[in-house]
């Protein structure tokens, strides 16, 4: 094959590969050019918090921590006092035994959290909370009241509020690291996903239903 | 370019593209360590409190979302505002997030120059802002004054912000010590000047401080106060207080001067009363007649407007009075005022026919050298009509629920000038400016700056920079009324005994402190323990004076109940007035300073509904809002009658030099037919030398403003005013100046004058008469 043809093919492969990689990247998701769910494999958070351990192993319900999910627009990130309600009396050796993915470095972070080491999140300095990475960051021009959706889904699916989270967020109870759910609707944070669900449940599809 | 270079460049481009996508970008969510118990993310919490932007003392309801106040609305059912809130009150949220707010205390070694420590602090705060998760949006929003803190991760979202807050807080002990030394050095020669926000027990605390120092009682400074009204009221009603005008039950209201609904002492109360007068009674629609020089907002909703020459309002009142009380003939009144005899006769017919009738004198009357006799004649109309101590007339205001909450009377200009002279003479050693910019109350004709500079120590308690803070040795950043405790009572009667309890819906945005906390700490350090730990403890102790209602078992304490509903109130009236009909002399002619030959125009300073008593000019919403009558925004302008404009060949936006014997201003022209041909009107926009970026000629933040002090004040009418004092009350006669108007041949620079609507300019028909007179529509009585 002609070397020129090879060069052109190589160039096309490089450019297209770069574009596909770019469009799959998390930055592309944030800028709206994504072709897939962002960080689908889960984010590495500042603290090695495992939803699997807390929900499946410990049997804690979603609404124990995300306590505003059925009463407010946002589910709410639990304050550290909620964590410490259990972790104050937690046997950390048992915690290590439970953990499947926590690295040693991450466990050090947990120890810092527990002991109030300098620079860590601690109750001794209430201005310093944990800086979680945001998994779902909806664009500013859209309303998404959790409260409304939780109750609507519970009614339509015949479930109680707080047990319908998996419909949108996937089976969080099995996730050690939580990423955006790429389930039946491919990408939760796309408008098409909203519309397909609104169609399915016969919710309104007028622009001002969601857009500010 | 050969093929190899092309391939290299293509590969480099593709690699850059790919690497660009590898950026680790994530929004952050910062969790509380301990969440406030009343905080639900995304859901508002409402707090009952009171507005302090003017002396009206409206009840307010603050909408707070995640620790940030986002909206202020009127408190439903409040006796002053009945659920409404004026534009200034609604814009008060911008005080909270003002980009030029003082970040922390500033101990200055050179007056007008921020200390290096403060500048370092300011840099830290700016860096903290810059490192927030959405810095651009946040800071841009603050710059344009748009409240859009929809994201919950702002304040707690960055540790630098918390660190800056903590660093600022550490500067407080030194500032309090500096204040304590100032109080000690001042002693009995300490002068405390306070603004209208220092009311209720805040005023009582400062009075306690003055007593402890053996210093004079705090002096209330109100720009262009109501001294003449108080003197006239004392002469006619027997007491100087500002009464309750019961518009709601009146059948005829005659306003002399035109600012009751917009820039008076209680615009929301009077606006509610006006609405009730018009619509609340099924068979009666009350009538409103305005007698004034300038056609303003009240005239726009009146049944009739009678245009009079400046300072002649009292003659119309005297024409309605019986001759035994000094009444004059209709013809004489017409000659004096320029109004037509038919108009006055028709008004006289209404005055005799409709009951109850209510006559109210406004600041247009109070601004003249004949203010007291004119206001006394207006008050006499109420006595002659039997409207005093009667529903629909003039009622005595009840005492406040707690005795020492009574609103303090502002000092007259004469008294203020005496204190200023004392400063100039070196008799004042320490000056405390508490929520007040004294320059607003003085015309530039008096050298207040020279007087204040003689005071060895000046401390200014303020939220925003102004000309007073620029003179201070110590800046004490005061918390806004949304961040601190307080209480207040209305400055005027509202038909009820009202005691507002102001509670802090939010924590201070910056590391400011309430005046009470600082005063209590500094006084203690200076050896004058005032007996309270901080402001909250102080107000709790004061409100504990209220006896709990024990008639109902389990009733909440007055404090808890007041927190829930914003204070306490009960319908009441004070002891009846011992009013008598005065015997008036012939109408006193107003005096004007300036030769009519060289200064052919009367200057009519207009108390603007946008800027009010000065606080409004610092807020961008108020600047942006178009004036209700001429739609002017952002700064000042001069209103000129169309005939005059045609004679001077002036068009809108033309620049003119308005000059008095005291000074001159360059202003843009607004052609407005609601003025006499021989008068020009300029709004009081209270621009400053060293104010915020919105109200000063210098602009910029405090350190920018003080670094480049602008010798010009922008376009404030105080530069033109003669220092003429009304002889009977000591009030500044700020409508007694004559000016000349000279076209410069230029147009005002873009942005210096914004007319939101051109419709008013469409009326610039030179044939339009200067008197706007609507036909009377006498409605069936009963």
Topology:
The complex is a heterodimer of chains A (212) and B (782).
Chain A: H1 3-24, H2 26-31, H3 51-57, H4 62-65, H5 80-87, H6 92-98, H7 104-115, E1 131-133, H8 146-157, H9 166-169, H10 191-200, H11 207-210
Chain B: H1 3-20, E1 28-30, E2 44-50, E3 59-65, E4 68-74, H2 87-91, H3 93-96, E5 106-107, H4 116-130, H5 135-144, H6 159-169, H7 172-186, E6 190-194, H8 200-213, E7 219-220, H9 227-236, E8 244-245, E9 252-256, H10 267-279, E10 287-292, H11 297-300, E11 304-307, H12 313-320, H13 330-337, H14 341-353, E12 357-361, H15 363-366, H16 371-384, E13 394-395, H17 413-424, E14 430-434, H18 448-452, E15 457-462, H19 467-470, E16 474-477, E17 486-488, E18 496-502, H20 515-525, H21 535-543, H22 558-565, E19 567-571, E20 601-606, H23 620-624, E21 632-633, E22 638-640, H24 642-647, E23 654-659, E24 664-671, E25 679-683, H25 702-707, E26 738-747, E27 754-755
Parallel strand pairs in B: 6-7, 6-14, 9-10, 9-12, 10-11, 14-15, 15-16, 20-25, 22-24
Antiparallel strand pairs in B: 2-3, 3-4, 5-16, 8-13, 17-18, 18-19, 20-26, 21-27, 22-25, 23-24, 23-26
Characterization of this structure:
Chain A is mainly α. Chain A is 45% helix and 1% strand. The longest helix of chain A is centred in the N-terminal third of the chain and has 22 residues, at 3-24. Chain A starts with a helix and ends with a helix. Residues 97-108 and 114-126 of chain A have low confidence and may be disordered. In chain B, the strands form 7 sheets. In chain B, strands 5-16-15-14-6-7 form a 6-stranded mixed β-sheet, with helices on one face. Chain B has a 6-stranded mixed β-barrel with strand order 20-25-22-24-23-26. In chain B, helix 8 runs parallel beside helix 20, helix 12 runs antiparallel to helix 13 (330-337) and helix 12 (313-320) runs parallel beside helix 16 (371-384). Mean pLDDT of chain B is 84; it is low at 133-157, 698-713 and 762-782. Classes of the chains: A mainly alpha (212), B alpha/beta (782). At the A-B interface, helix 1, helix 2 and strand 1 of A face helix 1, strand 1 and helix 6 of B. Strand 1 of chain A pairs antiparallel with strand 1 (28-30) of chain B, so a sheet runs across the interface.
